């Protein structure tokens, strides 16, 4: 805590050697009234969760498995933007601590050379038209060796240490993440999401690419050309412009 450079995020820290999922622990704390900025970190997760009911590989000591509790004064409709906000904050931190060039794949994956180094899972609790809390869960493959990844994900995942060619200090990266995420959150609260979206776009590797969309009810292909003010991905197809707010896209190799 002495090393923290953020003022709100990380003021209450819950540290676990092993936990099922830091998001589950954070949701319990948030439901019991913990202050905004509370964080949960674990050396390892035995039930780490990803988006779309997937798991998240969380081996001990090799990553940052982190959840942050926010109580944003946004409408529940804006919760998706918290994920974009987190992607921008984490990208800033990775760039300043490691210098590797990474990019954001819509909506919330951070990739290096086409392989995932960070995944983000945002969960919300809202009542009526107000957000009670948002838990932003971030999984960062910091010092995972390439051969440690389970075979199902070995070809699509990598880590910061593989990218940088050396071990990365987890504490340096964690403190940078908390201060960058805090800065981006302040920016969103004080000046609105437009600047955050601009920065997201600058770091995007999805825009301008041919993509295949695996939507909730249909699949299609087209060229991703923008995101709108809600953070939805806009795709030009032969039929016209399609808007995707949730789901998965894969980028066609060019
Ligand atoms: C994804 O890419 O599908 C999202 C992965 C999110 C993983 C992180 S690790 C910390 C937090 N706790 C979890 O159970 N999941 C998130």
Plain-language structure description:
With 254 residues, the chain is α+β, with helices and mostly antiparallel strands. The chain has two domains: 13-202, BirA Bifunctional Protein, domain 2 (2-Layer Sandwich), CATH 3.30.930; 210-251, Roll (SH3 type barrels). It has five helices and twelve strands. It has helices at residues 22-31, 79-98, 160-164, 170-191, 194-202, and strands at 13-19, 39-45, 63-70, 103-105, 109-112, 115-127, 130-141, 210-214, 219-227, 233-237, 240-244, 248-251. The strands form two sheets. Strands 1-2-3-7-6-5-4 form a seven-stranded mixed beta sheet, with helices on both faces. A hairpin with a 2-residue loop joins strand 5 and strand 6 (115-127). Helix 2 crosses helix 4 (170-191). The protein is globular. Biotin is lined by residues 21-23, 45, 48-51, 54, 56, 65-67, 109, 119-121, 137-139.
